Amino acid sequence: MSLTPSSMLPIGTIAPNFTLPCVTTNSYVSINDNIGRFGTVIMFICNHCPYVKHVNSTISKISNKYSQEISFIAISSNDIVNYPDDSPENLKKQAIDNQFNFPYLYDKTQNIAKQYNAACTPDIYLFDSKLSLVYRGQLDDSRPGNNIKCTGNDLIYAINCLINGKINERYQKPSIGCNIKWK
Question: Which pTM does this prediction carry?
Answer without folding.
Answer: 0.96
